[in-house]
Specification:
Layout lengths: L3 H6 L29 E5 L8 H10 L6 E5 L7 H4 L3 H4 E3 L4 H9 L2 E4 L8 H8 L3 E5 L4 H4 L8 E2 L4 H13 L1 H14 L5 H13 L2
Parallel strand pairs: 1-2, 1-4, 2-3, 4-5, 5-6
Helix pairs in contact: 2-8
């Protein structure tokens, strides 16, 4: 699967390449930030590749009073529970299907501090559900979110920057609300109808 960055890196002729993203069932309405819980959620593989160790280091250093961190996903690096005993308290099990949208619809912040990533469906689902994001600048993530949402991205493999951004976002409901609105708008291009029309345009109208 190609992203816009792949097209540029491979020096492909843009007129002959159509980048069509994966699609999602985008919720028609989402809860405003003011009525959401003070919850930060991680959804993904529980591993170092996904930055769970960075997340736990950042969380312990951030100003998190009154906030909850919930981690959902398949466990890949079991030794993380030995290295970070507090992980046991944050880990809530595996989540998939309708449960994912239910979790994201109630959360304020979605965090994914990956060291490596391709096209993250979890990020798209979080955007569509009106979450503020804290993500790393790896893979296609940076081009997936709105250009003006610069305050949601940190360098990969940098738990100190991650912690600082956590503190800033958790301290400002207005910032989270602004990011959530921006993300909802940016998620429109991943809506099933929009993506289906792009496929029709590619195959039948050229």
């Amino acid at each position: 699967m190609l992203s816009e960055s792949h097209v540029k890196a491979l020096r492909l002729q843009s007129k002959r390449v159509q980048v069509i993203p994966n699609d999602i069932a985008r919720p028609n309405e989402v809860l405003p930030m003011l009525v959401r819980g003070r919850r930060a959620i991680f959804l993904g593989e529980v591993s170092r590749r996904k930055g769970v160790d960075l997340l736990l280091q950042a969380w312990s250093a951030a100003e998190t009073a009154g906030w909850q961190l919930e981690i959902y996903g398949e466990i890949k690096d079991e030794d993380l529970f030995d290295q970070f005993p507090e992980l046991q308290g944050h880990y809530k099990g595996y989540a998939s299907g309708p449960l994912v949208n239910g979790l994201l619809s109630q959360a304020s912040i979605f965090v994914l501090p990956s060291r490596a990533e391709a096209f993250s469906m979890a990020v798209v689902e979080a955007m569509a559900n009106g979450c503020s994001l804290i993500v790393t600048d790896v893979g296609a993530i940076q081009e997936m979110i709105a250009a003006e949402a610069y305050g949601q991205i940190v360098p990969g493999n940098d738990w100190r920057s991650l912690s600082s951004l956590m503190t800033r976002q958790m301290a400002s409901t207005q910032d989270r609300e602004d990011f959530a609105l921006s993300n909802r708008e940016a998620s429109k291009r991943f809506d099933q109808e929009t993506v289906n029309l792009a496929w029709v345009e590619t195959y039948f109208n050229r």
